């Protein structure tokens, strides 16, 4: 499925976030700067892309029509997502943050009843796609296995500080993303939506930057460079690819859950990145078993939805005969 492939590529670029955030914290950088700089750096890239596509006027018109919703769901999807992740990086290793983040694959599926779909003029609550939930739980079980070996060596405070904020972020990200898709109603493309959410959340990033300056002083040159890399890789490339995949799947709850489940592959990319950059040891038996569960769960997601979509296509073709 094309959308799942796009989601996996997005996960590869998202993985840069967990690796470099931890690197910046180890170098003494503040999480306040790590979070705010990423989104402030994203703005000129997104403004240029939307301007070249000549879509700016439509975006600002949409934002003007529903300003409170744009601020609320942008704050939920961006601020409540990224600020806790950068905070957690100060207290937990990259593998712990990336592993806990995989709660988002289950959280996204469980959010279905909060949304409605129209059928013959009647609005009905969406149902939780049970097969997708089952496959997501398999994936998350694999993530838990990966973390088991490492968690035993972490202190209780590191576990709490590295887990609880990320658990909140894992719920906020899919909620904000899905609500903004609902607000936009397919009228905006992905670049417009990402830029709109970034602009709507900018006041909060400025507040965090001011706090960072007051409490820790200006960021180091190394933190600025690494934040810029995160902004381009994770903020522009990964976010845009992921939003494209979710936009294409937004009318199908099962397909959307499969796309969101691709975020589980971030753990694999983070493990590989830490092995290359930090000379981490090659994973052992339990970790390899967890990786196997993640791959199996993703395969089942893809296989099930591909088969289901083909059955729907055949059924519609038969009705037209």
TrEMBL record:
<dbReference type="Pfam" id="PF13536">
    <property type="entry name" value="EmrE"/>
</dbReference>
<keyword id="KW-1133">Transmembrane helix</keyword>
<feature type="transmembrane region" description="Helical">
    <location>
        <begin position="227"/>
        <end position="245"/>
    </location>
</feature>
<feature type="transmembrane region" description="Helical">
    <location>
        <begin position="128"/>
        <end position="148"/>
    </location>
</feature>
<protein>
    <submittedName>
        <fullName>Membrane protein</fullName>
    </submittedName>
</protein>
<keyword id="KW-0812">Transmembrane</keyword>
<feature type="transmembrane region" description="Helical">
    <location>
        <begin position="257"/>
        <end position="278"/>
    </location>
</feature>
<feature type="transmembrane region" description="Helical">
    <location>
        <begin position="7"/>
        <end position="24"/>
    </location>
</feature>
<feature type="transmembrane region" description="Helical">
    <location>
        <begin position="70"/>
        <end position="89"/>
    </location>
</feature>
<feature type="transmembrane region" description="Helical">
    <location>
        <begin position="154"/>
        <end position="173"/>
    </location>
</feature>
<feature type="transmembrane region" description="Helical">
    <location>
        <begin position="284"/>
        <end position="304"/>
    </location>
</feature>
<feature type="transmembrane region" description="Helical">
    <location>
        <begin position="30"/>
        <end position="50"/>
    </location>
</feature>
<keyword id="KW-0472">Membrane</keyword>
<dbReference type="InterPro" id="IPR032713">
    <property type="entry name" value="EmrE"/>
</dbReference>
<feature type="transmembrane region" description="Helical">
    <location>
        <begin position="95"/>
        <end position="116"/>
    </location>
</feature>
<feature type="transmembrane region" description="Helical">
    <location>
        <begin position="194"/>
        <end position="215"/>
    </location>
</feature>
